[in-house]
Amino acid sequence: MQAATGNPTVLLDPVVAPRIAVTRLAAGLLQGLLLYWLYSAAQARAWPATESHLLAPLMLIGLLLPVLLVSSLGHLSLRRTGLWMAGAALVLTALALHDVSRGGEHFLWGNYKPGAPLRVISAQLFGFCVVGFYIAHALVMASAQDGRRLASYATYFEIAWKLGIQLLFSLLFVAVLVLVLWLGGQLFLLIKLNFLKKLLGQAWFVIPVLCFAFSFAIHITDVRPSIVRGIRTLLLVLLSWLMPIAAVLVAGFLLTLPFIGFERLWATRHAASVLLGMAGLLVVLINAAFQNGQAGLGVARGIRFGTRLSCLLLPWLVGIAIYALTLRVMAHGWTSERIIAGACLLVASCYAAGYAWAASKYGDWLNWIANVNVGTAFIALLVMLALFSPLMDPARLSVASQMARLNAGKVSADKFDVEYLRFEGARYGQAALQQLSKRTGPDAAVIRARADAVLKRENRFDDTGVLSDVAINLTVRPAGSSLPDSFLRQDWSEAGPGWRLPACLKRAGQQCDAYLMDFDGDGRQEVLLISNDPRASSVLLAEKEGGGWYARGQIPTETLRCQPLREKLQAGQFALVPPKVRELEVDGQRIPMSLYNEQEVSCPEE
């Protein structure tokens, strides 16, 4: 570790610097006390939990700033530590305030109680803050160690990997501590002593202890840098030998794709995320082989070949992912997930272009990778700041995209996803729904009814007494058919087990295709509902002799996820056929046969 003076040649001796250990442990304990105070206030709905614009910044700062402080102590001077903590606190406050002001779904601390929901930080913001401040902290620490704004790549490498290993092993230490305490509680229960079990159920004990333990683990891993360095070396060696395997797999995939056809890839509906994940893995493996850039020809020949090949394949992988995302956006518009995926692909494109350029230089050991990594780190920070600010707020941009599609007639009023606006569009979606509830023009009645219904829902699982007209959620097939009046008047909350019924019968914003057909040949039509949700569910509804509808059966979910079959079904290209195996009738009761090893339904080519 470096001394607080910032001199890169002076090592910090933990034995002669006990004040640093004490300060770190005190910071962890104070973090635990702060988080417990916020937790108890949230449970009691007391101040500062009553002020969302105060609670959210305090939570985000309480979760992240002490970790940055503990890691900085002993490496930065007091002045630099103060400036870094002040800057980080300012950024965290701004991000938290914007996150609260935009609305949407957030973490809820404590038991739910009636009244206005607690507005605290979103899981998405917290996750990106962890990644963003990990990058920023590594840049700050490396700059301080080298004594200049842009440190050497070797310093960036040392600091970044050290911080990553510290965090992972500190989390592992906390997890094992929890396991030890839990097993200790179980041990005392064997002799009828439950004091430790009760203690582990008390927030005033658990929260401070976990925070203290995390700070203690960071300190221990920090004062034993040789151990961390040894773990890092072993980890990088193991990862680097995975590089040839990954390179061969990606090359095989790319060579096979033109012969198989891209249609299979697009039919998965999640090609971009898988390709992006593989690109991220390649970046990690390439850096595991490259290390600090000084290994050079000392790297095994197979690893060198796999690394260079992976650098050349990376642009193709990212390019296909960009094209896949483009197709989804053209077909369905932007959503928050697609905007975040687009931002990730922007960062991945920087890696791909830079690594390919480095691999094209055959006279050296990919030395350009060092510059690419440092430059892309700054780009990634800017992209993350833009995503969680009004500049590129995914909710704002996605709501604007979906509304533009509706206004341009690219999506019909009965297919428009009002539930997305309500529960994922934040305050921008709420404003759009208010506009839709007053809409005039073609199909205005349908969109107004759906917007009004979804605005009344408290949360996405609220399905009690909201949907007064199920017809607004259903597309009847064949076209021109009408659902029975008894079906439209049915109270679906009393139609049998709720898990058998698609959400389109209970909640506004959920769409289903309703097929009218006589399944049992008794002259009366049943209704087959198939949800348009990607996780597709179905139910066959039949009318009882004395009136009332009930759930009678369903189609296997795996079959419904096959898009070609769904399209043929919607086009009316199907027929009702008798079962292959007849039923048993014993004493006037019909007994269906459960069949084994039946041929599975295959998904045809699109």
TrEMBL record:
<feature type="transmembrane region" description="Helical">
    <location>
        <begin position="82"/>
        <end position="100"/>
    </location>
</feature>
<feature type="transmembrane region" description="Helical">
    <location>
        <begin position="365"/>
        <end position="388"/>
    </location>
</feature>
<keyword id="KW-0812">Transmembrane</keyword>
<feature type="transmembrane region" description="Helical">
    <location>
        <begin position="272"/>
        <end position="290"/>
    </location>
</feature>
<dbReference type="Pfam" id="PF13687">
    <property type="entry name" value="DUF4153"/>
</dbReference>
<feature type="transmembrane region" description="Helical">
    <location>
        <begin position="233"/>
        <end position="260"/>
    </location>
</feature>
<feature type="transmembrane region" description="Helical">
    <location>
        <begin position="121"/>
        <end position="144"/>
    </location>
</feature>
<feature type="transmembrane region" description="Helical">
    <location>
        <begin position="203"/>
        <end position="221"/>
    </location>
</feature>
<dbReference type="InterPro" id="IPR025291">
    <property type="entry name" value="DUF4153"/>
</dbReference>
<keyword id="KW-1133">Transmembrane helix</keyword>
<feature type="transmembrane region" description="Helical">
    <location>
        <begin position="339"/>
        <end position="359"/>
    </location>
</feature>
<feature type="transmembrane region" description="Helical">
    <location>
        <begin position="54"/>
        <end position="76"/>
    </location>
</feature>
<protein>
    <recommendedName>
        <fullName>DUF4153 domain-containing protein</fullName>
    </recommendedName>
</protein>
<feature type="transmembrane region" description="Helical">
    <location>
        <begin position="305"/>
        <end position="327"/>
    </location>
</feature>
<keyword id="KW-0472">Membrane</keyword>
<feature type="transmembrane region" description="Helical">
    <location>
        <begin position="164"/>
        <end position="191"/>
    </location>
</feature>
<feature type="transmembrane region" description="Helical">
    <location>
        <begin position="20"/>
        <end position="42"/>
    </location>
</feature>
